[in-house]
Amino acid sequence: MWEASYPFFEWHNTSWLGTAISNSIWLFPFVETIHILAMCIMFGGLLVLNLRLMGLGMKKQSLPMMAKTLMPFVNWGLFIMILSGYAMFSSEALKDFSNDGFKFKMASLGLVIVFQFTIYRSLLKQDDAQRSGALGMIAALVNFVLWFCVGAGGRAIGFV
Amino acid sequence: MEFLQIAEWVRDTDLSVSIRESILMFPIIEGTHLLGIGASAGAIAISDLRMCGKIFRKESVSDVFEAVAPWMLIGFIVMTITGLLLMWSEPVRCYESMWFRYKVLFLFLGAANAGFYHNTIYRRRAQWDKDPDPPAQVKFTGWASIFIWAVVIITGRTMAYNF
Predict the structure, then answer these.
(1) B39 pLDDT tier (thresholds 50, 70, 90)
(2) Which of residues 46-85 of B touch A (CB under 8 A)?
């Protein structure tokens, strides 16, 4: 099934965006740096929310209030990471097609995005009294582990 | 003894050679360093944004700081260890890189910015801790911190490329 998606990768390899980046000395590092800076914003927000889900950190504020403040940062960070990530992908699409690190990263990314926009999101709307402490702890850990897998997979692309 | 001589001496040590030539060690150390940015800079960003009066305005500045401080500390330790190992594995390249020199400069600026803040106005925080809009010095420290750490990250990533 993965093999059937080959045309998608092949198309990107000769796309305008892909060739612009691979022909430039500085564009890839520039886009990659934006990717990393956006990661800081997203991880910072998720760090505080996950700590709160585990019962640590700023206990004076309710989790729904904290989520209201932080989720825009998390979502914008994610959006910019997806855009910059897509740009980098375009410049090396064929390499990524056969790269185990890339496959692992995409699988983890798919999982965490689904998780974050469903189960995680609904937990963030619940006050401490309504929310199961154990469920909150598990959700925070799942979120941490999945994002760690995305990051590690991303790093592995250059080394496998 | 000159820096370059020291760098060359470090490059020839067993530790340096083994990291450089290992298939797994360098990727793991560098990968940890990169992911550590998320935790450490992310925690700093949250505290800085409160200092700038942008988020959590109903919380006191010190409450936000204290919530993320353990992660800043853990992150700082992880980044320092992995960073030193990375530097140890390619000392001459680091020494000769202009980007690396800027990175070190801005690391020192970051430390100075934080140190000055914590030893001056932060000591008097009882007066302004709960203000949604902190005093000018606090805001300046927050924005300076965001800027300095962005430069550290940018120079750090750019030094990996051979421009």
Answers:
(1) confident
(2) 46, 55-56, 58-59, 63-64, 67-68, 71
For every residue of chain B, DSSP letters joined together read --HHHHHHHHHTSHHHHHHHH-TTHHHHHHHHHHHHHHHHHHHHHHHHHHHTT-S-TTS-HHHHHHHHHHHHHHHHHHHHHHHHHHHHHSHHHHHH-HHHHHHHHHHHHHHHHHHHHHHTGGGGGGGTTT-SS--HHHHHHHHHHHHHHHHHHHHHHHTTS--
Residue B163 confidence class, pLDDT cut points 50, 70, 90: low
What's the pLDDT tens digit per position in B117-154?
Answer: 999 999 999 999 999 999 999 999 999 999 999 999 99
Question: CB distance B38–A43 less than 8 Å?
Answer: yes
Residues of B in contact with A44 (CB under 8 A): 38, 41-46
One DSSP character per residue, B17-57 reads HHHHH-TTHHHHHHHHHHHHHHHHHHHHHHHHHHHTT-S-T
pTM value?
A: 0.90
The pLDDT score that the predictor gives to residue A2 is 82
Q: Check the CA dihedral A73-A75-A77-A80 and report its sign.
A: negative
